[in-house]
Amino acid sequence: MKKLAVFAAVIALVAFAAAPSARAADTIKIGAAFALSGSIAVYGEGFKKCIDLAVEEINAKGGIKGKKIEIVYEDNKSNPKDCVTAVRKLITVDKVPVIFGPAGSSNFMATAPVAQENRVVLISAQGAAVGLTRAGEYIFRVFPSDTLQGPHLAKLAMSKGFKKVPVMYVNNDWGLGLKNAFMDAYKRMGGTVTDVIAYDEKKTDYRSELLRATKGNPPAIVNLTYINEGAVQFKQAFEMGIKTQWLCGSAARAPKMVELAGKAAEGVIGTYPSVPQNTKQYQAFKEAYKKKYGDDKIPIFGDYNYDMVYLTARAIEKGGTTADGIRKALPQVAKGYRGVTGDKTFDSERSPKFAEYGIWVVRNGKIEDYKK
Hints:
By secondary structure, the chain is an alpha/beta fold. It has 12 helices and 14 strands.
């Protein structure tokens, strides 16, 4: 009897030890190195909501060939050093084959060589810097490059009659890339840049930059800014009595920016990759988001993150759960695939091949499509 009891105990221990492995075999882990704290957590929180929504929908329909998706989130704390740490942890400890990369082009580009070196797929749903995917064949994005947005912003300035403008930009890879793309196109169109002013992220006072930009009372200022920085700048400009037309890119197009800046954001206009919201796909996404979170204000770039999950799921379904299989499958499943943000076909640099651009404006405290 004693031997039987010992044998039964051993069997129970083996079964208990095997249980986690069995459960793990029923899930597919995907990493996400997001800013859940720090200066750009306002982005990460919104991304997470849309990713969780997509995962919930896919899992409710049976997952991927019967296996549930599990997102392993790591807080990158909004800076490049911790972004690299987060990505390394997801690769070495969690052993994920694919990672949804950090917001902020500089943060993403700091992690891209790590993913490439370890042959793990890294995808961006909001990075627009021109060189974002150039670290290698494992680096992708579902958001269009600033090589496309720059000329549209230049066209906007010229169409409004602004033939001479100063340019302010956040001093990082994204700001520099969009600044260069804008200036090249603007000069080709006959525009003149009167001054170029770089500024750092996370500051609480931009008065010196604003004074320099408004020297000579320019009728318009191009400001390539983020949510928090833009809110501070617009409020301080308002308090200083500065009256000018602000022209921005897509990174400032966020309800949170308007909330933080208040009436100082009124009239700000800019360009953005336009997503037709009257499609069946977008309406279904918006309704699902509202049902889950009780709010129909889609977070900035949230729709791109939602598409990223579905595209990745399609790649895993076709190519399997290895990083190499996912890498090879992504261009195949993306070709002609229409998500809520449109056609996700990749170009030769693993960026969206197609993108339309619209103009946004802040009116009565809300972001709307601009109409002349």
